[in-house]
Write a structure and sequence with these properties.
Blueprint lengths: L1 H33 L11 E3 L18 E3 L12 H4 L5 E3 L21 E3 L7 E2 L12 E3 L8 E2 L12 E3 L11 H4 L6 E3 L5 E2 L4 H10 L12 E3 L6 E3 L10 H4 L3 H47 L1
Parallel strand pairs: 1-2, 2-3, 3-4, 4-6, 5-7, 6-8, 8-9, 10-11
Antiparallel strand pairs: 11-12
Bound molecules: 2-acetamido-2-deoxy-beta-D-glucopyranose (3 copies).
Length: 300
């Protein structure tokens, strides 16, 4: 009796559980398929491939990934269509890799990206157009790229939400102040540890830094620059706008052109004035001659 009934009950049970088991297996399989080998996928939206000795971006990353952690690897470049694929990406961590350059436009399609870490790489320049109009970007980390000496003037225009910009410990000797002026939401910028040169180009940046000290995590304290004359490094906190006063005396090409042009104008005006004066004098002389003649005629 018992022997006959048990398999029947089991069969019924299995039949009843089938859809659940199918669902469970398919999700397990899916997750297994979607998570790249040597990466962890702690939740449906996160792929963590941090510190796995990767020499390239894994190619089986799920298309709907939102958080992608690729830090502490040896990744030398990212394909230029990388972010065209991962349109849901909000958080991208590429810290401590071997990136030496970014192809223009690589990051320009990242309309949802909020956090981007490119710190501790080997970037040498950030060309204009790199970030396009990533209007969602709030935090951008570019620090610890010791060979980074060039940041294009208009590279961050369009980053209207950017609040935090890190450019510390790079190789910057100067920075066009408009790079910072054009960021409407900026409330934190890190610039310490760069080999700044306090020449006349630096004067405008110095004024901006002085007026925006609340945006610098350590104020002017942590930032110093090299004096052009004797190569001495001085903290910015020891300088004042007066330190850059000699720069006001240095004329730019535009100033020279203005001087030359106004010189020409003055000469032309002088020539015309003397011509006018000469004509007037001549005219008066003739007039007085004629009137003298008239007088003489009258006397006769
Ligand atoms: C990512 O994985 C590494 C180890 O592989 C771990 O140390 C780290 O905490 C993980 N990060 C997150 C945000 O889960
Ligand atoms: C950078 O990544 C390498 C390789 O994973 C690791 O050995 C090193 O400690 C990391 N450096 C930093 C500063 O995290
Ligand atoms: C970083 O870049 C410099 C100069 O471009 C180069 O000499 C160096 O080998 C690079 N280092 C790495 C780890 O790629």
């Amino acid at each position: 009796m018992i022997n006959a009934e048990t398999p029947l009950t089991m069969l019924l049970c299995i039949n009843w559980l089938k859809p659940f088991l199918a669902l469970l297996f398919s999700t397990l399989l899916k997750q297994g398929q979607n998570c790249p080998t040597s990466c962890l996928c702690p939740d449906h939206h996160t792929v963590n491939c941090s510190g796995q000795g990767l020499t390239g971006v894994p190619d089986s990353i799920p298309l709907d990934v939102r958080r992608l952690l690729l830090s502490n690897n040896w990744i030398p470049w990212i394909p230029s269509d990388f972010l065209v694929l991962y349109t849901d990406l909000v958080y991208l961590d590429l810290r401590n890799n071997s990136l030496s350059q970014l192809e223009p436009g690589t990051l320009s399609t990242s309309s949802r990206l909020v956090f981007l870490d490119l710190g501790n790489n080997n970037l040498t320049e950030i060309p204009s157009g790199t970030f396009g109009e990533s209007r969602s970007l709030i935090k951008l980390r570019l620090g610890d790229n010791p060979y980074l000496t060039m940041v294009s003037r208009d590279v961050f225009t369009g980053l209207t939400s950017l609040r935090e910009l890190e450019l510390e410990r790079n190789g910057l000797t100067g920075l066009d102040v408009r790079v910072l002026e054009l960021l409407p939401s900026l409330n934190m910028v890190r610039l310490e540890g760069n080999p700044w040169l306090c020449n006349c180009h630096f004067a405008k940046l110095f004024v901006w830094l002085t007026n925006n000290q609340h945006k610098l995590p350590t104020g002017l304290e942590g930032i110093d620059c090299t004096l052009p004359l004797d190569g001495r490094r001085v903290p910015l906190s020891l300088l004042s706008e007066d330190s850059f006063r000699p720069c006001h005396r240095i004329l730019t090409l535009a100033d020279y052109l203005i001087v030359i042009f106004s010189g020409i104008c003055v000469s032309v005006a002088a020539i015309m004035a003397s011509f006018f004066l000469a004509s007037t004098v001549h005219c008066f002389q003739r007039l007085s001659k004629i009137s003298k003649g008239d007088e003489g005629e009258g006397n006769d």
